[in-house]
Amino acid sequence: MNIVIAGGSGFLGKKLTDHLTNQGHSIYILTRDASNKPVLPSVHYVQWLHEEAKPIDHLNEVDAIINLAGESIGSGRWTKQKKTNILQSRITSTQSIIQLIEQLPIKPKVLVNASAIGYYGTSLSKTFTEESESSGDDFLSNVVEKWENEAKKASNYGVRVVFCRLGVVLDPNEGALNRMLLPYRFFIGGPLGSGKQWLSWIHIDDAVRMFSYAATQPNLEGAFNLTTPFPCQMNEFGKTLAHVLNRPHYLPAPSFALRLLLGEMSTLVLDGQKVLPNKAISSSYPYLYPTLLSALENLLKK
Fold first, then answer.
1. CA-CA distance, 44 to 66, in Å (whole number)?
2. Is beta strand 110-116 parallel, antiparallel or unpaired with respect to 160-166?
3. Structural domain includes residue 121
4. What whole-number distance in Å separates Cα of residue 121 and Cα of residue 234?
5. What is the pLDDT of residues 106-158, one digit of tens each?
6. From CA 146, how far away is CA 271, in angstroms rounded?
7. Could you list the residue range(s) of the whole structural domain that residue 216 is in?
């Protein structure tokens, strides 16, 4: 397949590019600056500016577009400007993708658009699946709803659209796990907040493979939760992490301190949600690391 990726230079995009090229696909990465990029077999860098979204002559036949573009939600406090950037970066890039689809003489079969389980809102007691409506009126749920509404416009051109709603992606070098590791390495790890909040997580390798799965399964459409079938409460997560690292789990980080330190971004670790990947389960997606213990042992004992 000829697959176009927007946001291919990010931590998830790089791993996805490696996976897809290993599967024999040709990858076209949209970038603001195509100069001085590494020369790799089956990977092509295409000059592309969100603001212009001009036709790209040599992309005549695209099978799939994967949109990962957007400013990271986990870097820095959510100031007013940061929140504006988080929303606008996603809306602008997705609008440009729709313009690109409009201009392509042969339309792609599918648009796989990154999204997030933040769509569902937070809860200590509810269980969310792809059939659940948004129950949140917080910043993240509003961002995701607007983001998906833009991506949905690809269906006007006969393109299958999949919203890959990512849970918390576990990778030892990037994201939430990297930050959670530090106190345990110094023997001061413990539950965050009450410890009762749910963590709906996914191993980075499964996240990558599920994006590929979404692109290649013709019957998969709409919301697609990228989470494990076995979410856990934060206290269980901490205990399992301590077990794998052979460290204690006893010193809690109180909610008020985390909210003071992180501001509104503290919702990522304090206000959880229990999300189940019903579509992945029903379609028999073969998880590499379905359980937390298997995932952490793979990530931390390499």
1. 15
2. parallel
3. yes
4. 17
5. 999 999 999 999 999 999 999 999 999 987 688 899 999 999 999 999 999 99
6. 21
7. 2-169+202-227
Task: Identify whether the C-beta of residue 101 lies closer than 8 Å to the C-beta of residue 153.
Answer: no
Among all chains, which residue has been given the structure tokens 């961002």?
Answer: 143
Angle between helices 11-22 and 204-216 (to 10 degrees): 60
Q: How far apart are CA 166 and CA 147, in angstroms?
A: 13
214 within a domain of the structure (yes/no): yes
3-state SS assignment for residue 27 = strand
Q: What is the pTM of this model?
A: 0.92
Say which residues have a Cβ less than 8 Å from residue 163's Cβ, sequence separation at least 6.
113, 115, 148, 151, 222, 223, 224
CATH of the domain at 147: 3.40.50.720
Backbone phi, psi, residue 172, to 5°: -70, -15
The pair of three-digit structure tokens given for residue 16, joined into one six-digit string:
């996805």
Classify residue 45 by its DSSP letter: E
Count the domains in the chain: 1
